[in-house]
Design a protein that fits this description.
The protein is of the alpha/beta class and 429 residues long. Helix content is 37%, strand content 22%. Strand 1, helix 2 and strand 2 form a beta-alpha-beta unit.
Amino acid sequence: MLWRAACSCLSGSRADGHDFAHEAITSGAVAVLATRATGVASVIVDDVVTAMSDLARAVAARYRGTVLAITGSAGKTSTKDLLTQILARSGSVVATERSFNNEIGFPHTVLRVQADTDFLVVEMGARGAGHISHLAGIARPTIAAVLGVGSAHLGEFGSREAIATAKRELVEALDATGTAVLNIDDPLVRAMAAHTAARVVWFGTDPEASVRAEDVTLDAHARACFVLRYGSERAPVRLRVVGGHHLTNALAAAALALSAGVPFATVADTLEQVGLLSGSRMEVTEREDGVTIVNDAFNASPESVAAALESLAALCAGGRPAIAVLGEMRELGNSAAEVHREVGRHAAELGIDELIAVGADHARLMTEAARAAGGARVTHVTTRDEALEVLTSLLRRREVVLFKGANSAGLFETAAALAAMPIAESRPS
C-alpha cells in the first residue's frame, strides 16, 4: 500500500527531508512524497503536508474500525498511553506516537492503520481556532474525549474561554452515532455537552459521572487509589503511575475504553497493571544511594506544574527532603510574570525544601516569590548545566528531586544526566 511504503520529504528550519530521499529508499520505502525531483522514485506534490492529509483522509474513509480521539490542555499523551494498553486487551491498536498530535503527526498516525486494525487512537492538539476541526476532518472520531481546559497556550488564545472553544471543536465533529466523553469536574468541559449531537458519557469524581472515582486517596508513593464505578459495577484500583493528577487521565481512559465496548473487569484490571509508555512524564528513577528523581519535564503549563509540585510534596510527606528544579513555562502571554510568581509561592506553601529555578527573568520571579513566601531555600540559575552543578553539591541523603519545565528548557536531559551520574560524582565528601 502506498501510504505504508512512502516517505514524506518535509522541509524545516534545520534540515530538508528531500536531502534524505535516497536514504529513505535504501531503508525500504518504494517512493517519497516530495515537492521537487529527488533522484529516486517520487510522487511530486505542491505541498507535502497537504498531500499527507489528503492521503490520510482517503485511508480513514476506508477504515472500518473505531476512531478514538483525545484533546485537552494537559494529559493527552498519558491518557493515550493508558487507553492504548487497555484496548490492546481487546484488539489491535494503532496510536499516536509520543505527542505527534499536529497537522504533521496526526496524518502520520492515521496512515499507519491497516484493514485489520480494531482501534485507532489519536491525540489532537490545537494552537488556534480551527486546528482540531481540521484534524477531525481527516479522520472523523467515533468516540472523543475532552480532558480539561487549562492555561497551556494562553498567550496564543488569549483566554481559557477561547481555549475551550477550540477544544470544543472535537465534540462538535461527532455525529449522533458518536460518543462524547467529557470531564464533569471541569465547568468549561461540562458546558460542551450542549454543543454536540453525540451521546455524552461523563467521567470524574462528581456523583453524577457515569464513570467515576470514589474513596480517592494517595499512597506513600503518591499514586491514586480509588474505587472505580460504572453503573452497578465497581472495583478497587491502585494506579502504578505517580501523581494524583493522573486520576483524571485514568478515568478518561476508562470511559473511552468502556464506550468502545471493553468489559469493565478488563478496564479495572488493566489500570492496575500498566504505566505510562511515553518518557519524561512523572518518570521515577531510584538511585542506589536512595535519591529519587522524578522526571516530568516533557512540557509544562501552570496546572501541570502545580500538580507536579503537589505530587512532590506527597512523595516527601514522610520527611524526605524535596527539591524542585523548575524551568520557565512558555506561551503564557501577558499572564506569564504573575503565573511564574504563583508557582514560586505555591512551591513555598507546599513546604518544598529547595527550589532551583532555571532560565531568565521568569525563573528569577519564581525564586523571588518563593523567598518572599518563606520556607524554601531558593537558587536561580540561567542554564541547566548550572542546575546540575548545584544539585551535585546538594544531594547528601534520601532527597526526592523533581524536574519540570517547558520542553525547550531541556530539563529532561538534566534529569537523565543526574540519574545516570556515578554516585561518587554526585555526593560531596
